[in-house]
Design a protein that fits this description.
One of its GO terms (cellular component) is plasma membrane. The chain is an all-alpha fold. The protein is built from 14 helices and no strands. It has one domain: MetI-like fold (Orthogonal Bundle). Helix 3 packs antiparallel against helix 10. The model has no long low-confidence stretch (mean pLDDT 81). It is globular. 71% of the residues lie in helices and 0% in strands.
Length: 261
């Protein structure tokens, strides 16, 4: 059992280790060795000295933070409506929402881009943020949790004269902190690693996110493997810090969802 876990962990960690070692070398990627003789931090100094690198990082944090906050709020409101409110066609609308999860992003890429272009949001922050706010998975995740909240709590609040918005803010929101943390982590990581959509929308270098900046480090005529791997390692650090900081909330949220499912 332990051997299987160790082998599986190594298989997942090996690509990251290869990138880390390659970022500390001055030779080419094809001359890879686990213990190179030419250790250097030159690649990191060049990357950190690039005037556009801080802008890439700032764009990734800005887009990821806004997308995460708005997605969690919108998904929580929708999940509350689907779980606790009664309206015509609720179950059919929810089934249709879940069906959209089966559509690949490439199938909706062109229509969404045309809509964004018609609205004049190409090469803007709203153009990168707004299309990412619809997250059926988040609605499903939060709805499953909210369904486990006793209806007696909501009925007591209604008897006391609380509105639906007050019930949402005072009852639902405090009880959903753990699944919200899980959704926030998933959403931020997905936004941070998003590549195709920011590549289409961010047409100027100043609007690029970090993932797009990594891809554009290499061109057809220039191959900077050391710089690319150094940027890749630096892009992993915020995700590692995020997971370590919210690890207990993530595990509790996943376990809570599993127990209520």
């Amino acid at each position: 059992m332990h051997t299987t876990a160790a082998v599986t962990s190594f298989l997942f960690a090996a690509p990251v280790l290869i990138v880390l070692v390659a970022s500390l070398k001055s030779s080419t990627f094809l001359d890879f060795s686990w213990a190179p003789q030419d250790w250097t931090l030159r690649n990191y100094r060049e990357v950190l000295g690039d005037p556009l690198f801080p802008r890439y990082v700032a764009n990734s944090f800005l887009v990821g933070g806004v997308v995460t906050g708005l997605t969690v709020l919108v998904d929580l409101l929708a999940a509350y409506a689907f779980a606790k409110l009664r309206f015509v066609g609720r179950d059919k609308i929810f089934a249709l929402l879940l069906a959209t999860m089966m559509l690949p992003f490439s199938a909706t890429l062109v229509p969404v881009y045309l809509i964004v272009a018609k609205l004049g949001m190409v090469d803007t922050y709203p153009g990168m943020v707004v299309p990412a706010l619809a997250a059926p998975f988040g609605v499903f995740l939060l709805r499953q949790f909210i369904r486990g909240i006793p209806d007696s709590l909501l009925e007591s609040a209604r008897i006391d004269g609380a509105s639906e918005l007050r019930i949402f803010a005072s009852v639902i929101l405090p009880l959903c902190r753990q699944p919200m943390a899980v959704l926030a982590i998933f959403t931020f990581v997905g936004s941070w690693n998003s590549f195709l959509w920011p590549l289409l929308i961010a047409q100027s270098p100043e609007m690029r996110t970090l993932t797009v900046g990594i891809a554009t480090t290499n061109t057809q005529f220039t191959q900077n493997i050391g710089g690319t791997t150094a940027v890749a390692v630096l892009s992993l650090l915020p995700m590692a810090v995020l997971f370590l900081a919210f690890q207990r909330y993530f595990i509790r949220g996943v376990l809570a969802g599993a127990l209520k499912a």
